[in-house]
Design goal:
Number of helices: 16
Strand content: 15-25%
Distance between the termini: 37 Å
Strand order of the largest sheet: 1-6-5-4-3-2-7-10-14
Structural class: alpha/beta
């Protein structure tokens, strides 16, 4: 794992939900995801709903006509567009610059193929939509989970006509003005609803037809949501995430630290929505990686197989921490199921999948305390790794080799998700 530098701080939050029932039943998490972190997710969810629930309900009422004019993820699920394809979720973290050239080399020529021959689908974060367009990459979908209207410029302003085919996947609870402007530019919307009672009740009260059939938990942020869309809606069994650091470099100057939060350095929407996560003093171990100089041709992909890793202190926030813990918990929950599912973390840095055996102050300073999720996220039925930390170039190569030698949708152990069971 390389040398650990600096001092690690224990996660200190005295306001976590103390109810042990859910965690005690999740034996797959024991020894991997700590109870205090799992319970913290529930507390954050409750706080978020209490703070924003009223606004969400009002937005649902205003978005009734948009719901009727556009499609839903239930309809998208029925198309099965992700079968035998990999979905690449594109985040806006600073690590995006590490492999953006590989991303372009893969998805641009693939996007010129007929739909039947395509091998990849792309889902971009709203923050990354315009930077991708400037690179010449037109994503298939943009996913928006933020209900506020402060992100409007990222999606509406100065969008070229070439991007008219990009579809917006978003919740029926988001800002109505933003949705009208997107739709007014001739672009389609694919709606989902979240399991939150306040949203489900608002959908019922306002007569949104079929809302319960398009209910899905997205894990709070765009990359978690992209993963859920990939496997539960599009029915892909391979997901690759880039630009998903869930962390940022620690700087002496706060403005410099904020500007390093996103790949494009634009922190303005965070400040406008009063989500100043870049000033957080929370710290965790973040990894960097480099390819080994000598690799056996038979060496498998995955953590430690092809790469050397080094850990260092990085900044994160309680919100980003929730996203990390949620995804890790979901992946561990899949290990006991007879499913063919592969999550490639291709961000090439960050905190996702960096685990600690213990979280005492002394343990967090010990290099031997740290390990990767790759080492434990192994399917009990197939014996295969389900979570892999890998460079994008390698993940693409492994997927294409497997896909071209055998159509994945015909594999006997491939079980595709149905959205009705994923809610």
């Amino acid at each position: 794992m390389g040398q650990t530098k600096g001092r690690f701080k224990i996660l200190e939050d005295d306001n976590r939900d103390k109810n042990p029932e859910d965690y005690e039943n999740r034996t797959d998490l024991h020894g991997v995801v700590h109870k205090k972190n799992f319970d913290f997710i529930k507390k954050v969810n409750q706080t978020t709903v209490a703070r924003l629930g009223g606004e969400w309900a009002r937005n649902v009422k205003k978005n009734k006509k948009m719901w009727r004019k556009n499609s839903t993820i239930k309809e998208l699920n029925q198309l099965k567009i992700g079968r035998n394809k990999a979905v690449i979720g594109i985040g806006a973290g600073p690590s995006f610059h590490k492999n953006k050239h590989i991303l372009k080399d893969v998805v641009v020529p693939d996007g010129l193929k007929s739909w039947e021959d395509r091998e990849f689908l792309t889902i971009a974060a709203n923050h990354q939509f315009k930077p991708l367009l400037k690179m010449g990459i037109i994503p298939d979908f943009v996913l928006l989970v933020d209900g506020a209207g402060t992100v409007s410029d990222q999606l509406i302003k100065d969008i070229p006509k070439e991007a008219k085919g990009t579809q917006l996947i978003t919740g029926v609870h988001v800002n109505p003005k933003l949705l009208k402007e997107w739709y007014g530019q001739g672009r389609n919307i694919v709606f989902y609803t979240t399991p939150a009672d306040v949203i489900q009740d608002a959908c019922m009260e306002n007569g949104l037809r079929g809302f319960a059939d398009s209910k899905l938990e997205l894990g709070g942020n765009v990359l978690n949501g992209s993963f859920m869309m990939a496997c539960a809606v599009m029915q892909s069994t391979v997901f690759m995430g880039v630009g998903n650091d869930l962390s940022f470099p620690v700087k002496d100057d706060l403005d410099d630290q904020r500007s390093s939060y996103y790949a494009d350095g634009d922190y303005s929407t965070n400040l406008a929505s009063k989500r100043d996560e870049g000033k957080s003093e929370k710290r965790w171990a973040g990894f960097t990686m480099e390819r080994r100089k000598i690799i056996s041709p038979t060496e498998p992909i995955g953590c430690k197989a092809r790469y050397n890793f080094e850990l260092d202190i990085v900044g994160t926030s309680h919100t980003l921490w929730v996203y990390k813990t949620w995804l890790e918990s979901v992946m561990m929950g899949q290990c006991a199921l007879p499913v063919l599912l592969h999550y490639f973390n291709c961000s090439e840095s960050g905190i996702l999948g960096v685990m600690a055996k213990e979280e005492t102050k002394e343990a967090l300073r010990n290099p031997e305390n740290w390990y990767f999720l790759d080492e434990t996220c192994i399917n009990k039925h197939t014996g295969k790794q389900m979570y892999m930390t890998a460079m994008l170039e390698d993940a693409v190569e492994v997927f294409l080799r497997s896909r071209r030698s055998q159509k994945w949708e015909h594999c006997s152990d491939a079980r595709y998700a149905d959205i009705s069971g994923a809610a």
